[in-house]
Amino acid sequence: MRVLVVTAVAAERDAVVRGAAAAGTGPAEEAPGRVAELALPGYVLHRPAPAGPQPLVIDVLAAGVGPAAAAAGTATALAAAALSGSPYDLAVSAGIGGGFTATATATAAAPGRTAPVGSVVVSDAIVAADLGAETPTGFVPVTELGFGTVEHRPPAALVRAVAEAAGAQRGDVLTVSTVTGSAERAAALVAARPGALAEAMEGFGVAEAAAAHGVPVLEIRAVSNPVGPRDRAAWRIGDALEALAGASAALREALRAAPAETWSSS
Ligand SMILES: O=C(O)c1cccc(C(=O)CC[C@H]2O[C@@H](n3cnc4c(=O)[nH]cnc43)[C@H](O)[C@@H]2O)c1
């Protein structure tokens, strides 16, 4: 199986590589730290040594911050792989993100479901939360304007397997182009999408590129900060990167235990 993991920045990529290389038993553990760097036009893929009897190749790409950068990098890697005759079986958007807190979810259908700093969320749905138009009566998503899509759904069986392996919650992960900076905006996002547990800036870009290539998609977010009023002192980026490495090890184990045939149609 061949998996493309797309992060925004190098620190996230390195955490994913560290986790993916450390999982399970096999050649990667016999040669820890062996990471190949593969050049693509405009990008570099990092590939920890494949391990196990049925090789699982995990390529990790730091494509930049925001949905457009994520889509460009993902599309480039997916196209290069397809043209080389070894297409990817799965694309994963992975990184740190904001977690919705009790304040934001107080008005939600399932109040109390929150994503604390240091926890991990695996996406039930990858949602473009601000793709649409402001109107006198409020925000209208592009789908209601007659365009495109605002949501991609990962295979449910894969979501369950990865969340269980990672000790993560399952929930909707919102993609925003502007980091939320107020309690009011956080509450509005959860009111519009009651299943939301986390927000970040790349998932929908990865998902759009994956959909164009007919490749299943997943998003994994390790929570570095609460979504809401800006408070840089509350960020725990180091803790979130450690959680991301742990989730990447779990991803690798889950994929070894559940090959694509078991989840690709779920
Ligand atoms: O300046 C701020 O107040 C601020 C607050 C949170 C995050 C940022 C970033 O610029 C990080 C962007 C980067 O990290 C992901 N990320 C992490 N936390 C969040 C968040 O709460 N909302 C959206 N994105 C977040 C994101 O995917 C980017 O890759 C600045």
Automatic annotation (TrEMBL):
<dbReference type="InterPro" id="IPR019963">
    <property type="entry name" value="FL_hydrolase_MqnB"/>
</dbReference>
<keyword id="KW-0326">Glycosidase</keyword>
<dbReference type="InterPro" id="IPR035994">
    <property type="entry name" value="Nucleoside_phosphorylase_sf"/>
</dbReference>
<keyword id="KW-0474">Menaquinone biosynthesis</keyword>
<dbReference type="GO" id="GO:0008930">
    <property type="term" value="F:methylthioadenosine nucleosidase activity"/>
</dbReference>
<keyword id="KW-0378">Hydrolase</keyword>
<comment type="function">
    <text>Catalyzes the hydrolysis of futalosine (FL) to dehypoxanthine futalosine (DHFL) and hypoxanthine, a step in the biosynthesis of menaquinone (MK, vitamin K2).</text>
</comment>
<protein>
    <recommendedName>
        <fullName>Futalosine hydrolase</fullName>
        <ecNumber>3.2.2.26</ecNumber>
    </recommendedName>
</protein>
<dbReference type="GO" id="GO:0008782">
    <property type="term" value="F:adenosylhomocysteine nucleosidase activity"/>
</dbReference>
<comment type="pathway">
    <text>Quinol/quinone metabolism; menaquinone biosynthesis.</text>
</comment>
<dbReference type="Pfam" id="PF01048">
    <property type="entry name" value="PNP_UDP_1"/>
</dbReference>
<dbReference type="GO" id="GO:0019284">
    <property type="term" value="P:L-methionine salvage from S-adenosylmethionine"/>
</dbReference>
<dbReference type="GO" id="GO:0005829">
    <property type="term" value="C:cytosol"/>
</dbReference>
<comment type="similarity">
    <text>Belongs to the PNP/UDP phosphorylase family. Futalosine hydrolase subfamily.</text>
</comment>
<dbReference type="GO" id="GO:0009234">
    <property type="term" value="P:menaquinone biosynthetic process"/>
</dbReference>
<dbReference type="InterPro" id="IPR000845">
    <property type="entry name" value="Nucleoside_phosphorylase_d"/>
</dbReference>
<dbReference type="GO" id="GO:0009116">
    <property type="term" value="P:nucleoside metabolic process"/>
</dbReference>
<feature type="domain" description="Nucleoside phosphorylase">
    <location>
        <begin position="63"/>
        <end position="254"/>
    </location>
</feature>
